[in-house]
Structure formats: C-alpha cells, structure tokens
Amino acid sequence: MRRVVQFSTGNVGRHSLQAIIGRPDLELVGVHAASPDKIGKDAADLAGWHEPTGVIATDDIDALIALEPDCVVYTAQGETRPMEAITQMSKFLAAGINVAATSMVWLVAPHQVDDWLRVPLEAACDTGNSSLYVNGIDPGFSGDTEVHSALSLVTRARSITVQEIFDYSNYDDYEFTGKTMGFGMTADDDAPMLFLPGVITSMWGGPVRNLAGQLGVELDEVRQRTEPWYTDQRIECKMATVEPGQMAAARFAVEGIRDGAPVITMEHINRLTPASAPEWEYPPDNQVGVHRVVVEGDPRVEINTHVSHPVLDSTDAGCISTAARVVNAIDWICCAPKGLISVEDIPPTELIRGLMW
C-alpha cells in the first residue's frame, strides 16, 4: 500500500483525488489546498466522494512532508508560476518523497528541458533519492504512448501528425486555458501568452525533439505556427462569453522540419462550440474531441482516441485521463531509480497494474 498526498484539487486534482481514495492499493494520507474555502475540508468534500475520509486539506507543506508519504500527486497549475512550482516540488523530492505530476508540462520530455528547470529538480532528486514523473493526455499520451503505438504498425514512416481537436466550450478554466489561448480577445489586443514567440515551442518542442531522437531523425529546425479565429456572432458557453470580433477558436502547432518540410507535427485545434472555425477540422463521428495520430507511411495508420463519461462532460473525461497518466504510475515511480522519469522508462504493463478490483 502506497501512502499518497494529493497536491491541489482543481480540474485535474479533484479527479486524481477521487482515484486515490477509491484504489485499494493506495492510501490517501494528506491533501494540499491553496484556496481558503477548501482548507479545513475533508478530502471527500473536495473529490465528490460519498463518505468522509478523515483526511483534512491543509496549505502546510511541512505538515504534509511530516506524514512521510511515498508519493505526492502534484496537479497544481505550475506553468504560470514555474519558480514557485519548482520550489514546492523540490521540497518534497529533497525530503525523499517521489512526485507524480500533471503540471509543468515541459517535463513530459524531461531530457529536452532547459537547465533552469531540470537542474534544481535533478539536485532535489539526488538529495532525497527520489523520482519525478510528469505526464498527461496532451502533452503526454498523444505525443508518446499513442504515437508509439501507431509507429509500431508501419515499416516506414514519412511524416507524423499528432492532433488534439477539442471543443472547450464546457471546460470551466477560463483563468488559465481561456486567457492563455486568447478566447475573448480581439485582433487589436496584444497576442495571448500561448501565441508569443517561443511559448508553444517551449511546451511541445520537447516532445517533437524527443520523438525525432527516438526515430533517429535529425531535424533542421523546430518551429511554431499559430492562427486565431474571430467570431462574427455572440457565443455563450461555460468557458467564456465571446462577442462578435473576439477570438473563439485557436489553432497552433509545433513542427519538426527536415529538408524544408514538416515531418513531425504536434497540433491543437481548440474551439468554443461547433459554430467556431467551421473551415477547420472537426473530430470524427460528431465527437466533442479527439486525440489523433496520423502516420503517413507503409501503411498509413490513423489512431483516434476519444474519452467520455456517462455523467461528466468530455472535457472532464479528459481531465480524468490526465490524472490517470500519473496515478497509474505511482507504484512504479516509488520503486524507480532516483531522477527525472520519462514515459519510455516505464514498462507499459506497469501502468495498468491495479486497475481492476
């Protein structure tokens, strides 16, 4: 039985918290919450669980370390406060506590990240003889596990396209996702954070370079492209209310270039309601979203992954899958050699152990 602390209870964290509570091979021993309205509440109230757990949320990191957990599941938003997130993660790691995270997505391809991020975390792992693993559904699954599966079916690959095509209208995350993508902005506003030079490359460039290295392909360059779409009608949805002339869809990609042409592309098409950007691709079969890999090669292979839930919206289902990518790895992470772990370090069967009970 692994002793686990859940760090944050937001869009992903509440689902990982519920998964930890429910699994018989994991014991929830602590919960971190930053919001005053969550501190002091039972974990069950924060996870939508049916009975009290007796584990009370706190913002005291030292108190959580004192619980001597085996692993911390870190799902707090870190991309807008990276130095604070590094400090928090490092404190656990240096204390000998492993960290499984969906935050700090640069670390999905840990060997591709810059020194400012990698070095302090490696030092903390070395001090505490601990391990750090970061993954999710995208960045993560679609650019590693899904694309590896597709490539295993070809004898030659000429190009690879990894896509997330998703309607974000029911995703309740305007403060981060909405603002960084630029939903609600006009063409006269400054570019949203995600569209600034180098930002998309910093997040998806690592997985592109990582895949190129695994294929033995030398890229000439890695570049980004961005494209906003502005609506001519009012759109009301959970994510935001968008007025005519404001951005209601975003398309962006990171491309690995060889001989002047993209050979590895990781692209997002995200819209608010199906009315937005009708000329852009949609998920197949009237689905809300898809994580797709297309390998042009011998033969051509296309894998479309859809996530859904009988009660929750598909965006919530995607958050559950993001949580699963790290919760399912807890036991292996706790046994792993110290340092930064990438998904290819983990035997695939280790990520499905304990899922049926």
SS element count, helices: 10
Largest sheet: 7 strands, parallel
N-end to C-end Cα span? 14 Å
Please estimate the helix content. 25-40%
Shape descriptor: globular
Q: What are its keywords?
A:
357 residues, alpha/beta, seven-stranded parallel β-sheet, six-stranded mixed β-sheet, 10 helices, globular
What's the structural blueprint in terms of helices and strands?
Layout: E1 2-7, H1 13-22, E2 26-32, H2 43-47, E3 57-58, H3 61-66, E4 71-74, H4 82-94, E5 98-101, H5 115-128, E6 131-134, H6 145-151, E7 156-167, H7 174-181, H8 199-215, E8 221-230, E9 235-236, E10 241-242, E11 247-258, E12 261-271, E13 289-298, E14 301-305, H9 314-327, H10 330-335, E15 339-341
Parallel strand pairs: 1-2, 1-4, 2-3, 4-5, 5-6, 6-15, 7-12
Antiparallel strand pairs: 7-13, 8-11, 9-10, 11-12, 13-14
Helix pairs in contact: 1-9, 4-5
